[in-house]
Write a structure and sequence with these properties.
Helix content of chain A: 55-70%
Distance between the termini of chain A: 57 Å
CATH superfamily of the largest domain in chain A: Winged helix-like DNA-binding domain superfamily/Winged helix DNA-binding domain
CATH topology of the largest domain in chain A: Arc Repressor Mutant, subunit A
Shape of chain A: elongated
Oligomer: homodimer
Number of strands of chain A: 3
DNA sequence: GACGACATGTAAAGAGTTACATGATTAT
DNA sequence: ATAATCATGTAACTCTTTACATGTCGTC
């Protein structure tokens, strides 16, 4: 049975430790968000599917009268995750950037608008780089999750590159 | 009435000149594809909506008995496009990269697999950079569409950056 | 007592892809 | 001839977001 990529993000989150749905969401927001976002609308139905498929187990663990379901990987789930990660086949990297579409068609508007748009894009990526950097400063490196740190650094470098690129463009457009 | 971003890509394509649906798709594939892809499944229904909304005109222009509908912007469509491009407000840049998700969780597999994955990602972006470069080599610069060339160069630089980044990671993982 | 974090979920809508179906024209 | 390109479209499906609904726990 085919699993969605989001399902594998869930399996990956549970590979580290048992988590609640809320916790999985928090994990994704704090780590995969910049290249794979997950919303509650997908998360909870997906957890049900993974449970039915026997890839995860559920355990009730309420705090007082606040309900809480802890999920953990089954051996089957562990295997499914390992198999999936082992596939090194090429897949497309999808980018959808509304501001870049506007920039692409911005010959239709005045130079000032174009420069402003480019400047805002630079700021957007600078902010994102800073947000990711703040994440990386907090926690010490874990040997068993070295790739988590690599990918975080990847995001910082990427958004720094993008911020620099748009800043240069904005400067050129301002002095045109 | 709210238009989708894809609708604006269509308006933008028609801003340059009148085009058929097929031609709009070819334009998008050759220019906006690397940051905003468009499929036939969206394109033709969207053309109908834009027609109903009065933002574009349709003219029948068959070649022999092969049907062909040429679309062009109305004044209303021209205004809608200019208004949309003039909005410099910040919008998120969405990235969804399945291979990067695998890389993120690849602590679960052997070093060789990790290195192979990173190497394949480097190759993927190198190929994409080369594809975009080929596009840019063909045609001479047009003053009235300067931003088209800027955004194309943006794509080349971006994928070159990504290819370099993953190549360095792959090298590090191989020598670990 | 109020606020922020913890916690679970659904319904509806929207966006987008894939696969299919059909047929004409042009270049090799 | 036959393959590539030009050309139009739909149906089914998948994915994802948004908005809503509900309630608890810990802290200021």
């Amino acid at each position: 049975m085919e699993l969605s990529n989001t399902a594998y993000v869930i399996l990956g989150a549970l590979h580290e430790r048992a988590r609640s749905g809320y916790d999985i969401k928090a994990f994704a927001d704090a780590s995969t968000r910049h290249f794979w976002a997950v919303s509650y609308g997908q998360l909870y139905p997906e957890l049900k599917r993974l449970l039915d498929a026997g890839l995860i187990d559920a355990e009730d663990q309420p705090t007082g009268s606040r309900q809480r379901t802890l999920y953990r990987l089954t051996r089957l789930g562990e295997e499914a995750l390992a198999d999936w990660v082992s596939d090194t086949g090429t897949r497309p990297c999808e980018i959808r950037d509304e501001m870049l579409v506007r920039l692409f068609f911005s010959d239709a508007v005045e130079r000032e608008k174009r420069a402003e748009l480019a400047g805002n894009m630079a700021a957007r990526h600078r902010a994102q780089a800073n947000g990711l950097r703040k994440q990386s400063e907090g926690k010490p490196a874990h040997r068993e999750n070295a790739m988590h740190d690599e990918v975080l650094q990847f995001g910082i470098d990427l958004h720094e590159h993008l911020a620099d690129w748009y800043a240069r463009l904005a400067a050129r457009l301002e002095n045109e």
